[in-house]
Write a structure and sequence with these properties.
27 helices, Rossmann fold, about 45% helix, eight-stranded mixed β-sheet, alpha/beta, 5 domains, single chain, Arc Repressor Mutant, subunit A, about 725 residues
Length: about 725
C-alpha cells in the first residue's frame, strides 16, 4: 500500500507519532512543531492503513474553528467527506450525546443551551427570588461558583462539610438555580459535561455502546483539559480503547480557567505503558528566537523536558528596548511598525502583546495619533470597556447632571436596589415634567419614602460631592476619588478570577491616563475645564472604529489571547517585574512558573523579529513607579540579545551590541526654526516659570513641536517649544 501521501511531508518524529500503534500515547508537541498536522495525518493513517471506520474515531479540540480546520484537512488528505465522524469541542460533542439521550439524562427533548450572558440573567432572577441583596451576592460571583463546582464534577451534595457561610449561601443559590434550569429545560455549558458524565456513570448500556463505538480517541491541547473533561475521556476510553493525546506542558497557561497541566502526568500514571513521542522541530521561528524561548522555559521546575530547534536561519537577535517611560515605549513600538511598513511589509504581520488589558491604553493612544489602523483581538478598546464607561459616566454627571445616557448607565451601578419598576417611574415622570431623568429622579425621591428613594438620594450625594471637587482637584486625583466614592473598584473586583483583576487594573490605568492628560491644540478662548476636555477626547477615541476584519491592521492582544497564533513581527511590552511577571505571582512558585510559560508562549508567536520592551519608569495609578527589568529578559543569554538604549548625549538610539548599523534616528524636536535648541529624551532643562525638569517625551515638528517635561516642583507638563523658551542645563 502506497502511503506516501500521508507520510511524505512529515519529519521522522511526526511519522513515528502518526504510525505509532501503542494503545496509549502522548505526543509532547512544542510550539510550531506541527501538532495539528500530526493529528490529521494520524486520522488518515488509521482510516487508510489500519482500516478503522471514521465513525469509530472521536477527535476532540478546544475551539470550533480548530475543529472545522481539522475536519477539512482530514477530508482533503482522504479525498472523502466525513460527516459522520465525531470531531469537535468537548461541549459540541457531548451536547450531541445529550441530544440523542435526552430522556435517559432526565432532560426534556427541546432543552436549550444557556450562554454565559443568559446564565447570568437566570442567576440574577434566582438571587432576587431568594430575597438576597445582589450587591452582596453578586450574580457573576455566583456564576463562577456554580461553573467551578460543575467543572470539578461536583453537585451540591458533594460540598465539603466544613463549608464556610459564603459557600453555604452560594450552594443555596446553586440549588435554586438548578431547579429553575430543570423546570425550564435550560442547560449551561458546564452542565453539558457534568450531565454527560453522570449519564455515562449511571447507564451501563449507553456507556458500553460508546466505549465499543469509539475505538480511538484523539485529543488536541490536552494540557488545557479540566477535571470533568479528563474524567469524561477516561470514562469513554474503557479497557480496550486507544487514546492519543497531544499537548505541551510548557504552554499550560489557563489554570485560572480550571485547566490542569497535571493531567498530562495523571494520564501517564492512570494508564500503563504510555508511549511519549516528542516533537521538537519548530517550523515557525528563527533559531535565535527559539534559543531565547528555550533559555527562559528551562528555569521552570517539573517539566517533562523538550528543547525546540529549527532548520530556519539564525535571524535577528531578540531586540530589547529600555524605554524612558511608557510613552516612550509606545512611541518606539509605533516607530518600528512604521519602519516595517517602509520595508514593504504589512500591518497584519504585526502583533503587540501585553500581560494586562490595561496596558493597551497608552499603546492605543500612540497608534491612534499615528493614524495607523489596529484591531484588539478577542477584546475591546480601552475606552469601550464596561468599567471605564461606568467611571466616565459618573464623571459626565459631575459636569452635566442632565446627561440622560450617563444617568441610565450608572444609577444602579453598583447595585442600589433601583430596579426596572423604579426606572419606568422615573422615565414616566421625565416625560410628564419634560425634564431630564436626573431631575425626575430627584423629584420622585423627595415625594416618596421607600428604599429606592433613599438609594437615589445617596446616589445624588455622590454626584454632588464629585461636582464640588471637579475643578479643585488635579485630573488624576479627581478620578482616584471618583473610583473610591462610587465603590466601582470593589464592585468590579468582585467578579471572579482574571476578569475581576483585569477590570481593577483598567480602572487604575484610567487614573494614570487622566493624570498624564494634556489638551493640545485647543483655543485659548476655550472655557472648558480639563475634565471636560478629557471626557471629550475619550469619547472621540472610543468613537474611532476598529479596523475591519479584512483590513490591513496591527493586531493587539493579551498574551493569553495570542496562544495558537503566529506573526512575523511581535512586540511584548511591559517586561518589568510586577507587570510581567505579574506582582500576584512573585511569591507563589506555581504562579511564577505559569507566568514563565506565558512568556514562552508569547516569544514563540514570533516568526522573524521579536522586540521585548520595558520602561524605567511607568505611570501607574497616577504615580511614577520605578520597576526593575523582568527576570525573563535577564534569563535570555547575552549573545542572543540586541539591546537598544537611549543616549541623550549622542542624540541617537545607540545599538550597544552591533554598533550603529541598525541605529534609529532620534526623536529630536525643534527643526530649523529653533535649531539652537535640540532636545532629546532624558535632557535636563530649565523653564522660567516651572524651574528644572527632565524631558519625558518629544512629539511633532516645526511650529507644532512639543515636549513632555517632568518638573521637579510642578510635576509633568506638555509645552509647545515655540513658546516655552526651554534651556538645556
Amino acid at each position: 500500500m502506497d502511503v506516501s501521501y500521508i507520510l511524505d511531508e512529515l519529519n521522522t518524529p511526526q511519522r513515528e507519532a502518526v504510525s505509532d500503534e501503542s494503545q496509549y500515547s502522548l505526543i509532547l508537541a512544542g510550539a510550531g512543531s506541527g501538532k495539528t498536522r500530526v493529528i490529521t495525518h494520524k486520522v488518515a493513517w488509521l482510516c487508510k492503513v489500519k482500516e478503522v471506520n471514521p465513525m469509530s474515531l472521536l477527535t476532540v479540540t478546544f475551539t470550533n474553528k480548530a475543529a472545522r480546520e481539522m475536519r477539512g484537512r482530514i477530508e482533503n488528505i482522504l479525498g472523502q467527506q466525513l460527516n459522520q465522524m465525531w470531531c469537535g469541542t468537548f461541549h459540541a460533542l457531548f451536547h450531541r450525546l445529550l441530544k440523542r439521550h435526552w430522556n435517559e439524562a432526565s432532560l426534556i427533548k427541546s432543552f436549550s443551551i444557556l450562554d454565559s450572558e443568559d446564565q447570568n440573567r437566570v442567576i440574577k432572577r434566582v438571587i432576587k427570588s431568594l430575597n438576597l441583596d445582589d450587591s452582596t451576592w453578586q450574580p457573576s460571583q455566583a456564576q463562577w461558583f456554580i461553573n467551578n463546582q460543575k467543572e470539578e464534577g461536583r453537585r451540591i451534595a458533594r460540598l465539603p462539610r466544613n463549608a464556610t457561610f459564603i459557600e453555604e449561601k452560594m450552594a443555596d443559590i446553586m440549588q435554586e438555580y438548578q431547579k429553575v434550569c430543570n423546570q425550564e429545560g435550560l442547560v449551561d455549558f458546564a452542565e453539558i459535561l457534568l450531565r454527560s458524565y453522570e449519564l455515562l456513570s449511571s447507564n451501563k448500556e449507553i456507556l458500553d455502546y460508546y466505549q465499543n463505538r469509539f475505538s480511538h480517541i484523539l485529543v488536541d491541547e490536552f494540557q488545557d483539559t479540566n477535571e470533568i473533561q479528563y474524567l469524561l475521556l477516561k470514562k469513554l476510553l474503557g479497557k480496550d480503547g486507544f487514546m492519543t493525546v497531544v499537548g505541551d506542558d510548557d504552554q499550560s497557561i489557563y489554570s485560572w480557567r480550571g485547566a490542569k497541566s497535571t493531567n498530562i502526568n495523571r494520564y501517564k500514571k492512570d494508564f500503563k505503558d504510555v508511549r511519549t513521542i516528542k516533537l521538537e522541530q519548530n517550523y515557525r521561528s528563527t533559531k535565535n528566537i527559539l534559543s531565547s524561548a528555550n533559555a527562559i522555559i528551562e528555569n521552570n521546575p517539573e517539566r517533562l523536558g523538550k528543547k525546540l530547534w529549527s532548520e530556519n536561519k539564525d535571524g535577528d537577535l531578540v531586540n530589547i528596548y529600555r524605554a524612558f517611560n511608557e510613552r516612550d515605549e509606545s512611541s518606539f513600538i509605533v516607530d518600528i511598525v512604521k519602519s516595517w511598513l517602509d520595508e514593504g511589509r504589512s500591518l497584519n504581520e504585526v502583533a503587540i502583546l501585553y500581560r494586562s488589558n490595561a496596558q493597551s491604553r497608552i499603546i492605543e493612544d500612540s497608534i491612534l495619533r499615528a493614524e495607523l489602523p489596529y484591531r484588539i483581538y478577542g477584546g475591546v478598546r480601552f475606552y469601550e470597556r464596561m468599567e471605564i464607561k461606568n467611571a466616565l459616566a459618573y464623571a459626565k454627571l459631575s459636569v452635566d447632571i442632565d446627561n440622560d445616557a450617563a444617568f441610565e448607565r450608572v444609577i444602579n451601578v453598583p447595585s442600589r436596589g433601583i430596579g426596572a419598576k423604579t426606572m419606568d417611574s422615573i422615565r414616566e415622570r421625565a416625560r410628564k415634567d419634560n425634564s431630564s431623568l436626573s431631575r425626575a429622579a430627584e423629584n420622585l425621591a423627595k415625594e416618596k419614602e421607600n428604599k429606592a428613594s433613599q438609594s437615589i438620594i445617596n446616589f445624588f450625594e455622590v454626584i454632588k460631592s464629585l461636582a464640588q471637587i471637579k475643578e479643585s482637584k488635579e485630573l488624576g486625583k479627581f478620578f482616584e476619588e471618583l473610583i473610591s466614592k462610587t465603590s466601582l473598584k470593589d464592585f468590579h473586583g468582585k467578579e471572579p478570577g482574571e476578569k475581576g483583576r483585569s477590570r481593577i487594573e483598567n480602572l487604575e490605568e484610567l487614573i494614570s491616563a487622566s493624570s498624564g492628560f494634556i489638551a493640545l491644540g485647543e483655543d485659548e478662548e476655550d472655557e472648558r475645564i480639563d475634565l471636560e476636555l478629557f471626557l471629550d477626547q475619550a469619547s472621540l477615541d472610543a468613537g474611532e472604529s476598529q479596523a475591519d476584519e479584512n483590513e490591513d491592521a496591527i493586531q493587539m492582544m493579551t498574551l493569553h489571547s495570542a496562544k495558537g497564533l503566529e506573526f512575523p513581527l511581535v512586540f511584548i511590552s511591559g517586561c518589568e517585574e510586577g507587570l510581567f511577571p505579574h506582582r500576584r505571582s512573585a511569591e507563589d512558585p506555581k504562579q511564577l512558573a505559569e507566568e514563565r510559560r506565558l512568556c514562552y508562549v508569547g516569544i514563540t508567536r514570533a516568526m522573524e523579529r521579536l522586540y521585548l520592551t520595558h520602561a524605567e519608569t511607568r505611570n501607574m495609578y497616577g504615580m511614577e513607579n520605578f520597576s526593575p527589568v523582568s527576570r525573563f529578559i535577564k534569563e535570555i543569554p547575552k549573545d542572543l540579545k540586541h539591546e537598544i538604549r537611549i543616549s541623550s548625549e549622542s542624540e541617537i538610539w545607540v545599538d550597544e551590541i552591533r554598533g550603529t548599523d541598525k541605529a534609529f534616528k532620534p526623536r529630536i524636536v525643534g527643526g530649523k526654526d529653533y535649531e539652537e535648541h535640540k532636545f532629546s529624551l532624558g535632557d535636563l532643562v530649565f523653564h522660567e516659570v516651572f524651574g528644572e525638569g527632565t524631558i519625558l517625551n518629544c512629539e511633532g515638528q516645526g511650529a507644532n513641536a512639543r515636549v513632555e517635561v517632568n518638573f521637579n516642583k510642578d510635576g509633568v507638563k506638555w509645552l509647545v517649544l515655540s513658546f516655552a523658551k526651554l534651556k538645556k542645563i
